[in-house]
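Supplementary Methods, section 5.1.

A reviewer requested that the exact input to the structure prediction be made available. We therefore reproduce it here, unchanged from the version used in the analyses.
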Amino acid sequence: MEIVDLSKPITNGMRSHVTTSIVPVMRIGDAAGKFDPPCEGFASNLIVMSDHCGTHFDAPNHFIRGGASVDQIPPSRTVGPAVVCEVTGVDAPQIESEHLVPAIARMPVKPRRGGILLLHTRLPEDRGKGIGRSAAEHLVELGVRLVGTDHGGIDNTRNRDRPGHMVLLQHDVLIVESLTSLDRLLGKEVLFVCLPLAFEGASGSPVRPIVISPCPAGPWPLSG
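The structure derived from this sequence is encoded token-by-token as follows.
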């Protein structure tokens, strides 16, 4: 059994694709001298950041007014069997269904209805690509419950109408962005585990998703 970490480290001063995602990490004291030996005190940090910083989860209310917030999403929705679809090297501004459909057809293990599909869009030398409306609509037709991407966002940021977010979230398909190491998972089914923090009313959460390979046998997908 292998466990693979799909997250990016959150570092002091990092900037995400959201301009408010600058992360200051401030030491607020270690309480040295206030405890008895051998205890030397404790470390504590104050961290201020966007709920869409680094590798992160998008709840429906990120773009859908009145949609569910991150604390309203059952953990069972973000755990399940996952496969990676390779859509690298697309010679277009964004990934559309004309790129996605043949890429899925080439997959040795296809995504399950109610399962999770992770999009491997970036090569080491590039930034990857977001998806367009036709690709988002095809993902809805596939019946997956969550789509992940190694791009900074599910959309091409030049698309001000944000079709990827709007189409997926309107159909209750959850999103995880800025994943890493997806190239290590090609050609096999794994168990994806991604637990957002239960921030009340938040539209997202930084996450540290992992996969377990191979995917354990079980009654997938989980209910909820």
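The chain has one domain: 2-25+51-213. These observations are discussed further in the main text.
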